[in-house]
Design brief:
Helix content: 25-40%
Strand content: 15-25%
Shape: globular
Bound molecules: glutamine
Structural class: alpha/beta
Largest sheet: 9 strands, mixed
Radius of gyration: 25 Å
Number of helices: 18
Oligomer: single chain
C-alpha cells in the first residue's frame, strides 16, 4: 500500500451542523472497504480543553475512548462506522492546543521568542494533525475541522491547513468543503450563492477546495453542478451532492454512488477499487426490514435533545437490526415522573433504560421508574447513573433503608449506598478527573451478563465519580440483588442483577460507546430480545383478558 500517509481535511461553510462528521465517517468507510487503513480526527475550535465539562445541552453527548479521553460525539460516529477504536489523539480542541503551547513556553522551549498564533499555535495544530499519520498505523488520515470557515475561532486551523497543504505537496493533502444548497420553495429554486461565497471565504485564507460536498434537500441538476464547478474552481466530477437520507447509515452508499471515494483517491494519487460493503449492506437490509417492533422508554433528564444520548440511540439501532426488530425509543423526562403517574407513563412500554447523568435533578423520577419495572417484571437496563438509581431503589424499598442515597445527591446521606471512591475524595478539579476509559471487569458464572458476553472478563468504558458502596454489598446481595461484575483490581462493583427478575441489569460503565455496525453491543442485543419476550407476554395477558 502507500508509503506516506495522505491527509484529507474536511471543512464546512455557511452553517455548521451540516453533517461533516457523517460525511467524514462515510468517506472513511468507503476507503477502509477498499483496504486503506483509515482514521478520522476532529479539531474543535472551542477553548474548553475537552468537552467533558460541557453540559449535553451545549454540545450533545460526551463520548469516551478506551484511553479515557472525553471527546466530541463525532468520534462515536467514527467508531460506529469503522469499528476501529479512537483515542485522545483523535480529538483536539483549541483549549488543548493553547494549554500545550503555554506549557512549552513555561518550560522555556521558546526561550527568547515572542509566542504567537502564527507560527506557534499553527505549528502545534500541524503537529497534532500529523500524530496519527506518523504512527505508521494509517494510510489515510481524515481531519474534520469543527465550526465554520470564516469564523474568528477557525482561522488558525484554516491557516494550518493552508501550510500543511503546501508542506506536504500535491497529491498528499486535499480539502473537502461542505456547504449548504438551500431550496427556496416559493421560487422552486436551489441556490448556489452561499456555496460560492463560502468557497471564496476559504480562498481568502489561501485554501482552494478540491472537492465540494453540497448538502441539499433536492437532486442537484447537471447545469447547477457545472455552475458550481466553474465558480468554485473544482472539476465537475468533484461536485458531490449529499442529499437528505432517511438514516445516516445510508450515507456511505450515497457517497459511493456520487463517486466521492474515486474523486478523493484520484486527487491523492491512489488507486481505487470497488469497496466491499457486504457486511454493511447486510446490516442495512436488516435495519430497513424489521419483522416486528418494540418500544423502549429512555428515562433521562436531557431527553429534549437527541444528541444527548446519541450512542445509546445508535446502539439500539445496531441491536434492533441484529434482532430484526424496529426499536422505538420513547424519551421520558424523569423530572415529570412520580408515583401517581408512573403506571400511565410506563405500562405500555416493553422495557426501560435509565440513562446516565449527573446531579440531583430528576433522580426521584428515575427511582420511581426503577421501582415500577422491578415490581412489574419489565426488562430494566440501567447505565451508570441508571445503575446507581437501581441500587438506591433496592436499598430503600427492599432493604427498607428509607434514607439510602448517593452522596452525589445528598452529601451527608445516612445510608450512602452510592459513594465517592476514596481516590476521588481529594480531587477538586472537575475536568478530566473522573474514572475514565476502559477498565476490566470479571463476570460471575451463570449470571445474565456471563451468558450475554460469553466471556469471563470484559473491558468497558467508564465516566463517573461515584461507586457502589461495598459496605452494603452483603446486605444487598442477601436481599436478592447480586453483584455479577467486579473490577479485579479494586473490587469495585461494575454490574448488578436481580436473578428473580426476568431481565434486570445495571452497569456502572457505558456499553453504548462500544456498539458498532459490525459489532452490535451484546447487552443491547440481549435487552432488545428481553423486551420482545416481554412484549409477547404482555400480548398474551391482554388476549387472555379479552
Ligand atoms: N453522576 C454519576 C457519577 O458521577 C453517574 C455518572 C454517569 O452516569 N455517567 O458517578
Amino acid at each position: 500500500m502507500t508509503t506516506t500517509t495522505k491527509y484529507i481535511f474536511v471543512t464546512g461553510g455557511v452553517t455548521s451542523s451540516l453533517g461533516k462528521g457523517i460525511i467524514a465517517a462515510s468517506l472513511a468507510k468507503l476507503l477502509q472497504a477498499q483496504g486503506y487503513r483509515t482514521t478520522i480526527q476532529k479539531l474543535d475550535p472551542y477553548i474548553n480543553v475537552d468537552p467533558g465539562t460541557l453540559n449535553p445541552y451545549e454540545h450533545g453527548e460526551c463520548y469516551v475512548t478506551d484511553d479515557g479521553a472525553e471527546t466530541d460525539l463525532d468520534l462515536g460516529h467514527y467508531e460506529r462506522f469503522l469499528n476501529v477504536p479512537t483515542s485522545q489523539a483523535n480529538n483536539v480542541t483549541t483549549g488543548r492546543i493553547y494549554q500545550s503551547v503555554i506549557e512549552k513556553e513555561r518550560r522555556g522551549e521558546f526561550l527568547g521568542k515572542t509566542v504567537q498564533v502564527i507560527p506557534h499555535i499553527t505549528d502545534e495544530i500541524k503537529e497534532r494533525v500529523q500524530i496519527l499519520g506518523k504512527s505508521g498505523e494509517f494510510d489515510i488520515v481524515i481531519t474534520e475541522i469543527g465550526g465554520t470557515v470564516g469564523d474568528i475561532e477557525s482561522l488558525p486551523y484554516i491557516e494550518a491547513v493552508r501550510q500543511l497543504k503546501w508542506d506536504l505537496g500535491e497529491h498528499n493533502a486535499i480539502v473537502i468543503h461542505l456547504t449548504l444548497i438551500p431550496y427556496l420553495s416559493a421560487a422552486g429554486e436551489l441556490k448556489t450563492k452561499p456555496t460560492q461565497h463560502s468557497v471564496k471565504t476559504l480562498m481568502e485564507s489561501g485554501v482552494q477546495a478540491d472537492v465540494l460536498v453540497c448538502r441539499t434537500e433536492h437532486e442537484l441538476p447537471e447545469d447547477l453542478r457545472s455552475k458550481l464547478a466553474l465558480f468554485c474552481n473544482v472539476r465537475e466530477e468533484a461536485v458531490i451532492q449529499s442529499i437528505d437520507a432517511s438514516t445516516i447509515y445510508d450515507v456511505p452508499n450515497l457517497m459511493l454512488k456520487q463517486g466521492l471515494d474515486k474523486v478523493v483517491l484520484k486527487k491523492l494519487g491512489l488507486e481505487s477499487a470497488t469497496p466491499d460493503l457486504t457486511q454493511w449492506n447486510q446490516f442495512l437490509k436488516r435495519h430497513k426490514n424489521p419483522v416486528t417492533e418494540v418500544t423502549i422508554g429512555l428515562i433521562g433528564k436531557y431527553v429534549e435533545l437527541q444528541d444527548s444520548y446519541k450512542s445509546i440511540l445508535e446502539a439500539f439501532i445496531h441491536a434492533g437490526a441484529e434482532n430484526e426488530v424496529k426499536v422505538n425509543v420513547e424519551p421520558i423526562h424523569s423530572e415529570y415522573l412520580n408515583e401517581d403517574n408512573i403506571a400511565v407513563k410506563l405500562s405500555h412500554l416493553n422495557g426501560i433504560l435509565v440513562a446516565p447523568g449527573f446531579g440531583e435533578r430528576g433522580i426521584e423520577g428515575k427511582i420511581d421508574a426503577v421501582k415500577y419495572v422491578r415490581e412489574n417484571n419489565m426488562p430494566f437496563f440501567g447505565i451508570c447513573l441508571g445503575m446507581q438509581m437501581a441500587v438506591i431503589e433496592y436499598a430503600r424499598n427492599v432493604l427498607n433503608l428509607k434514607d439510602a442515597n448517593s452522596t452525589e445527591m445528598e452529601a451527608k446521606a445516612a445510608n450512602p449506598v452510592i459513594d465517592l471512591m476514596a481516590s476521588q475524595k481529594d480531587i477538586t478539579d472537575k475536568g478530566g478527573t473522573m474514572r475514565l476509559g476502559a477498565w476490566s471487569c470479571d463476570l460471575k458464572p451463570n449470571s445474565i451478563v456471563h451468558k450475554v458476553y460469553q466471556a469471563n472478563t470484559i473491558m468497558e468504558r467508564h465516566r463517573h465519580r461515584y461507586e457502589f458502596n461495598n459496605k452494603y454489598k452483603s446486605d444487598i446481595e442477601q436481599a436478592g440483588m447480586i453483584a455479577t461484575g467486579i473490577n479485579p483490581d479494586t473490587q469495585l462493583v461494575e454490574i448488578i442483577e436481580i436473578p428473580e427478575h426476568p431481565w434486570f441489569v445495571g452497569v456502572q460503565y457505558h456499553p453504548e460507546y462500544k456498539s458498532t455496525v459490525s459489532s452490535p453491543h451484546p447487552l443491547f442485543v440481549a435487552f432488545v430480545k428481553a423486551a420482545l419476550k416481554h412484549k409477547n407476554k404482555q400480548k398474551g395477558v391482554s388476549m387472555a383478558q379479552k
